């Protein structure tokens, strides 16, 4: 319970920090000087403006029960539900696939580390971990476009558009869990209870899945939150390249990052949207942390 309360408290502190950072005044003064109209870009921080931003946000949240409106004059809550539901179609299958495939491949790697089949074991795990994620995503995208172009990989309109992004999002996290599982299984393989089970004539699969994995559960589950962070970190790149309008893509739009200066243009920065999506992403990590902790306590006999 103390660990859970610690995680919840940390989540609250980070959420408050996110709110304070998002509401930080961003408006700058753009003026023209001289006959040639030289553009002068200046920024002066104002505590009064900062206080007004925080006051307006908290009053709207407490008194009106809303995060405010978006640039499209829609409630922020509607945007969150719409875009986040799309991203969950990628996140949930990618999480399940990463965990299942990672554990199975980790077992395969540990069993075949000294055999000829290790070429398909530790070597492939090392290869996929070493190659940058974006390179694999671009490679798969290129293969599909030029050789399997009957597959629709762009957009979010079709019900099956989440499938390929989920597979791509699961590659690196699965290799990460595979590496953790292989190390944990290998460390347990030489222990006395395993030797006793083999001496009694138990099947190798029974020993691995019933005995060894149960003792490795704590180690694997402790790394599941990190696996989820890897999935979320790839989300923006996937949604941008595959034109999948999800939560990460909408969050990027809300940040309104633009290195050039447009005089007279209204700022499209949406702090309420940034706060809402940021809290949702952190809530997913918190949920996975709590679930993995409780499951580890239940499965780990120690």
Verbal overview:
- With 302 residues, the protein is mainly α.
- It has a single domain (75-299), classed as MetI-like (MetI-like fold).
- The protein has helices at residues 2-22, 47-63, 76-111, 122-130, 133-147, 163-189, 192-199, 204-222, 224-233, 235-241, 247-255, 271-299; strands spanning 29-33, 38-42.
- It has a two-stranded antiparallel ribbon with strand order 1-2.
- A hairpin with a 4-residue loop joins strand 1 and strand 2.
- Helix 4 packs across helix 6 and helix 6 runs antiparallel to helix 9 (224-233).
- The longest helix is centred in the N-terminal third of the chain and has 36 residues, at 76-111.
- The model has no long low-confidence stretch (mean pLDDT 83).
Going across the biggest sheet, name each strand in turn: 1-2
Helix content: 55-70%
Rg, alpha carbons:
25 Å
**In CATH's first tier, which class applies?**
Mainly Alpha
Structural class designation: mainly alpha
How large is the count of helical segments? Answer: 12
Shape: globular
Q: So, the CATH homologous superfamily?
A: MetI-like
Number of distinct beta strands: 2
Write the element-wise H/E pattern from the N-terminal end onward.
Answer: HEEHHHHHHHHHHH
* CATH topology description: MetI-like fold
Low-confidence stretches: none
Multimeric state: single chain
Number of domains: 1
The overall pLDDT, averaged over residues, is 83
The main β sheet shows up as: 2 strands, antiparallel
Strand content: under 5%
For the termini, the CA-CA separation is 17 Å
Q: Which architecture name does CATH use?
A: Orthogonal Bundle
């Amino acid at each position: 319970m103390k660990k859970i309360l610690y995680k919840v408290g940390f989540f609250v502190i980070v959420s408050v920090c996110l709110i304070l950072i998002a509401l930080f005044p961003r408006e700058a003064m753009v003026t023209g000087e001289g006959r040639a109209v030289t553009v002068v870009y200046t920024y002066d921080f104002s505590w009064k403006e900062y206080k007004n931003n925080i006051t307006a946000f908290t009053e709207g949240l407490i008194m009106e029960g809303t995060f405010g409106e978006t640039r499209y004059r829609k409630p922020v809550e509607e945007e969150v539900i719409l875009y986040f539901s799309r991203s969950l179609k990628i996140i949930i299958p990618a999480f399940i696939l990463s965990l299942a495939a990672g554990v199975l491949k980790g077992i395969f790697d540990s069993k075949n580390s000294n055999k000829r089949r290790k070429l398909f074991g530790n070597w492939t795990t090392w290869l996929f971990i070493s190659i940058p994620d974006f390179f694999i995503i671009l490679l798969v995208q290129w293969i599909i476009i030029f050789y399997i172009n009957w597959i629709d990989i762009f957009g979010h309109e079709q019900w099956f558009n989440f499938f390929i992004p989920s597979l791509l999002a699961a590659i690196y996290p699965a290799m990460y869990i595979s590496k953790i599982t292989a190390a944990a299984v290998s460390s347990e393989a030489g222990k006395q209870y395993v030797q006793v089970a083999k001496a009694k004539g138990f099947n190798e699969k029974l020993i691995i899945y019933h005995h060894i994995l149960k003792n490795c559960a704590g180690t694997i589950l402790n790394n599941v939150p990190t696996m989820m962070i890897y999935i979320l970190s790839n989300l923006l790149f996937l949604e941008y390249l595959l034109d999948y309008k999800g939560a990460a893509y909408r969050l990027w739009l809300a940040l309104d990052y633009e290195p050039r200066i447009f005089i007279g243009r209204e700022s499209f920065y949406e702090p309420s949207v940034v706060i809402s999506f940021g809290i949702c992403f952190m809530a997913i990590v918190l949920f996975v942390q709590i679930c993995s902790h409780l499951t580890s306590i239940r499965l780990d006999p120690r």
